[in-house]
Amino acid sequence: MPEIREARARDIQQLLALRLEALQQHPLAFSSSPDDDRLDLEYLQKIISEDRQVIFCAVHGENIVGMVGAFVQPQRKLSHRCDVWGAYLRASERGHGVGRQLMEAVVDQARSWSCESIHLGVTSGSKEAIGLYQSLGFVSCGIVARAIVDGEHAASEHIMVFHLE
């Protein structure tokens, strides 16, 4: 079972490679494309160094096989919520509880930040991810039709919330 831990500066190149893999293999699961992704070396360094942002990694030996990001909105009126982004787990690691461990790390972090809720969006085609989030206590609050459009292909997005209280 991979170790779950916070990303470190030395992980950045692997995180960028994993992110590119995610965007290439699952183009409708993410709002970014490989050619317009804002997640670069500088941005990752900023995330890793800031207080109310985190990237959790699933690490197998020396290899990062999964990741998920979370942050607290900087606006005062939104500072009670944690937002999840960029969740991805290599296919070889799915179905073994690694995704659950990554998300449990996010839940624990959100609690330590004194958040009231965790918010995420997941595309309708990601049935396993939706099932995982539901099993953790996330509830769907709505579906945005055609939230992600890539050429002639489109995906709806489930907006899900987990209340920590």
Could you write a compact summary of the structure shown?
The protein has 165 residues and is an alpha+beta fold.
- Summarize the biggest pleated sheet: 7 strands, mixed
Total E-strand runs: 7
Provide the CATH architecture. Answer: 3-Layer(aba) Sandwich
Mean pLDDT: 94
Helix content: 25-40%
Number of domains as seen in the coordinates: 1
CATH class, please?
Alpha Beta
Low-confidence parts: none
SSE-based structural type: alpha+beta
N-to-C CA distance: 30 Å
- CATH-defined fold name: Aminopeptidase
Radius of gyration: 15 Å
Strands of the widest sheet, in order across it, are 1-2-3-4-5-7-6
- Determine the CATH superfamily: Gcn5-related N-acetyltransferase (GNAT)
SS element count, helices: 4
**Sequence of secondary-structure elements:** EHHEEEHEHEE
Which shape, going by the Cα principal axes? globular
Residue share in β-strands: 35-45%
